[in-house]
């Protein structure tokens, strides 16, 4: 729908109920990613905080990686995405993000993904 205005309204409602709830934090990070610009750093910090509170999941790793891609930190993004691929080599979000990251750093992702069984 691409309605960040509607998402922001829903996020405010969630924050009124429980600003520190994990789902509220995830929604905030995703909205910040959608808005972009200076909000990317805020999204990264939320994903970083979640990674310190909970075991690293593909969702958290992908969130951090996408933030890194937006900030131009492709080496860190690649590291995070490789970790996510180690957890689930067939996760479509991880695979898509890995291909995008690989294109930005000029590496071929196809050989690596074929070896891992992801492509």
UniProtKB/TrEMBL annotation:
GO molecular function: structural molecule activity
Superkingdom assignment: Eukaryota
Segments traversing the membrane: none
The keyword Cytoplasm is assigned to this record: yes
One Pfam family named in its UniProt record: Coatomer_E
InterPro entries: Coatomer_esu, TPR-like_helical_dom_sf
The keyword Cytoplasm is assigned to this record: yes
Assigned keywords, A-Z: Cytoplasm, Cytoplasmic vesicle, ER-Golgi transport, Golgi apparatus, Membrane, Protein transport, Transport
GO CC terms, sorted: COPI vesicle coat; Golgi membrane
One GO term of the biological process aspect: protein transport
Topology within the bilayer: Peripheral membrane protein
Location(s) in or outside the cell: Cytoplasmic vesicle, COPI-coated vesicle membrane; Golgi apparatus membrane
Protein family (similarity comment): Belongs to the COPE family.
PANTHER family: COATOMER SUBUNIT EPSILON
Function according to Swiss-Prot or TrEMBL: The coatomer is a cytosolic protein complex that binds to dilysine motifs and reversibly associates with Golgi non-clathrin-coated vesicles, which further mediate biosynthetic protein transport from the ER, via the Golgi up to the trans Golgi network. The coatomer complex is required for budding from Golgi membranes, and is essential for the retrograde Golgi-to-ER transport of dilysine-tagged proteins.
Protein name per Swiss-Prot or TrEMBL: Coatomer subunit epsilon
Organism of origin: Populus davidiana
